[in-house]
Amino acid sequence: MAGSAAAQSGMIFDDAADEREPFAAYLTDDASQAAAQAVANQRGWSTSSIRKGGLAAALRLLGVAPPARFMIVDIEGLPIEEVESGLVELARLGSQVMALGTVNDVNYFRRIMRTGARDYLMKPVDADVLGEIFVRLEQPGDGVTPKGRVVGFLGARGGVGATTLGINTAFIMADKLSRRTALVDMDIYAGNIALALDIEPTRGLREAFDDPERVDQTFLQNAMAKFGKSLHVLATEEGFDDAVRMSDEKVLALADIMRANFDMTIMDLPRHFVMREPALFTRFDDIVIVTQLTLQSLRDANRLMKLLGARNRAAKLHVIANQVPAKPDVTVKEFEAGLETKLRCVFPHDPKTMTKTTLKGQALATAEAKHKIVADLHRLCIELAGVPEESKAATGFFRRRLARR
Ligand SMILES: Nc1ncnc2c1ncn2[C@@H]1O[C@H](COP(=O)(O)OP(=O)(O)OP(=O)(O)O)[C@@H](O)[C@H]1O
Ligand SMILES: [Mg+2]
């Protein structure tokens, strides 16, 4: 067998790629085995390649066959030098390895990641966390520099609900669409995200602006708060007297770093960014403008549409009407005529539900999963995530079939 001959001579298994098992796990505890089994079942992989034993067992089998394409390997209790040399070997032979251990230490994590392993997870892991990582590893591309999408949320005026809708969009994206999602509060002085989600603000964003070169995967892992399963939040509350110097270069670097590390980044933007950080708008795939149905909002939404449309012709602009009372100042029809664009969503003024969820420190999408706002945002998320619409795919299919006749 080509694979075993190559293994014995210490060659890299490039030409043996087709013989590889898609997946193997070498685990020592029942919880991790159950999680690996659930993930294998979801993907139709054989569970016979989930074996007892950790890294040493995985290395022993290298004498028989190339390592699997994806591996989960327990490294608990082994000296770090042994772990490093073993993981380097598996990565060199082309395996994407997730290491599981119990040491919670940044330097340890860095050493593991330098071996070429794709992730290091603390035990016990569950099927959800493992599943999320597989979704990321299976993204198209080279698998090393995944290319995410970056979406900006902006209010046409103050207090129209841009932050509320940004938070819920990010939550649905992470929770319902299983995208590894970052939610970034770009208002580092008076942003509301940490408060709304009842999480500790971190100094991550401040530090990222101070020294963008420091920002890498490890930095993000430490600087971001986790909300729910796969939503990562960067939200800072700096003192009003603490001037943070931003520059085009720094905000652009941040946008690019987020794109490289997350499937989806939602940036909640303070309105003065439109004047102060024009370059950032060139980086968005989509821009969501939130407005009320009033004359003042119509004027400002119009100005934003024109300005941002000219600044970034490739970005898709979506306008959402929010806090819409039963009898708005300007009707939907009048607003759309004035804006020369259809409203993407129209959301009712529902202070009762909003207050209830805010007081609980929850996203609307968690507390009121069936609310109209949540259902409509879910549809918007599918579009923002770049998933082709089913109807469009079907039309394309029929058109191709008809074209052949
Ligand atoms: N559809 C809605 N119905 C009722 N209240 C809402 C609705 N959407 C948002 N709110 C409430 O409006 C207030 C302002 O919301 P939010 O902070 O999201 O607005 P914003 O546009 O981000 O404001 P800012 O200009 O301060 O950034 C909050 O109290 C929020 O709960
Ligand atoms: Mg806001």
CATH class of the largest domain: Alpha Beta
Give the end-to-end Cα distance, rounded to a whole number of Å.
47 Å
Total strand segments: 13
- Give the overall form: elongated
Q: How many domains, in number, for the residues?
A: 2
- Indicate the mean pLDDT: 83
Spatial arrangement of strands, main beta sheet? 8-9-7-10-6-11-12-13
* Radius of gyration over C-alpha positions, nearest whole angstrom: 24 Å
Which strand-content bin applies to the residues?
15-25%
Number of continuous helical runs? 18
- Structural class by SSE content: alpha/beta
Low-confidence stretches: 1-18, 141-146, 388-405
CATH homologous superfamily title of the largest domain: P-loop containing nucleotide triphosphate hydrolases
Associated small molecules: adenosine-5'-triphosphate, magnesium ion
Look up the CATH topology of the largest domain. Rossmann fold
Helical fraction equals 40-55%
Describe the structure.
- The structure is a single chain.
- The chain has 18 helices and 13 strands.
- The longest helix has 17 residues, at 295-311.
- It is 44% helix and 16% strand.
- It has 405 residues and is an alpha/beta fold.
- The two termini are 47 Å apart.
- Helix 2 (30-43) packs across helix 6 and helix 7 (162-175) crosses helix 17 (372-384).
- It is elongated, with a radius of gyration of 24 Å.
- The chain folds into two domains: 13-137, 3-Layer(aba) Sandwich (Rossmann fold), CATH 3.40.50.2300; 149-388, 3-Layer(aba) Sandwich (Rossmann fold).
- The protein binds adenosine-5'-triphosphate (ATP) and magnesium ion (MG).
- Residues 155, 158-164, 192, 322-323, 347, 349-351, 354, 358 line the site of adenosine-5'-triphosphate.
